[in-house]
Write a structure and sequence with these properties.
Blueprint lengths: L3 E5 L13 H7 L4 E4 L2 H11 L9 E4 L8 H9 L3 E5 L11 H10 L3 E4 L5 H9 L6 E6 L6 H16 L2 E6 L4 H11 L5 E6 L7 E6 H7 L8 E6 L1
Parallel strand pairs: 1-4, 1-5, 2-3, 2-4, 6-7
Antiparallel strand pairs: 7-10, 8-9, 8-10
Helix pairs in contact: 3-4
Length: 232
């Protein structure tokens, strides 16, 4: 029988291990095979969860930044009936990272895919934003350069207004100020913008204001992981 592919959420911020469930801790303590975006990060997390674990005995297949995940290795492990874990760099795997390809590959060999409960920066940000949670869309990263970025922002604002839908996206921390500036430049004054930064960390910050209020406040964003939400 094919094995089981566990989707293992990890903390969104670096230290708050308490955000992970007992099931995650239990399952991760027995697995001997992992696929991870970064093997070093995966070992650090496993050491925090299980100080007595012999990390040298655990095999971790790292997802290559250029070539992508090694699907053949995963499928071989699963065909052999092994239990395998998938770890993201932060939060829930297979959301805004290459993990979805691996999950699809696991399904193709008839493996059991088991998602475990854990922190998601996208859902935490939506919960804390006060924006509509009945209809929302996550867009990942917006285009980096103009005019493509401005056009995408305007299109998302129009879609939000038409559908009553909250639009969610992320950005590389060092570009937080740039994306906020572009939002304030291209969106109407009544559009609501929420920025949720460093969620679950001691210095987490969630600010929700209209574009007009953001312009007046002239808030400076930290270079920490952030989720941006918009509703027109």
């Amino acid at each position: 029988m094919p094995g089981t592919f566990y989707l293992i959420p990890v903390p969104v911020a670096e230290d708050p291990v308490q955000t992970c469930t007992p099931e995650v801790i239990m399952v991760s303590g027995r697995l001997q095979y992992y696929v991870a975006e970064n093997a070093r990060t995966a070992r650090r997390i496993l050491r925090a969860w299980h100080p007595q674990l012999v990390l040298e005995s655990i095999e971790i297949a790292e997802i290559d930044k250029h070539a992508g995940p090694d699907i053949a290795v995963l499928q071989r492990w699963l065909k052999e009936g092994k239990e395998v874990g998938l770890m993201s760099e932060a939060g829930c795997p297979a959301v805004a990272d290459p993990g979805s390809e691996l999950v699809a590959a696991a399904h193709r060999v008839g493996a059991t895919v088991k998602p475990l409960t854990g922190p998601s920066s996208i859902m935490l940000a939506l919960m804390a934003s006060g924006l509509g949670g009945q209809s929302f869309a996550f867009w990942g990263y917006l285009p980096i350069k103009e005019p493509a970025r401005g056009a995408r922002i305007k299109a998302l604002e129009a879609l939000s207004k038409k559908e009553g839908q909250t639009q969610i996206f992320i950005e590389t921390p060092y570009r937080n100020e740039a994306i906020l500036s572009d939002l304030l430049k291209h969106c109407g004054p009544a559009t609501r913008i929420c920025v949720a930064q460093h969620l679950t960390a001691p210095d987490e910050r969630v600010i929700m204001q209209t574009v007009e209020q953001w312009r007046k406040a002239k808030t400076v964003l930290d270079k920490t992981p952030a989720v941006f939400l918009m509703q027109a």
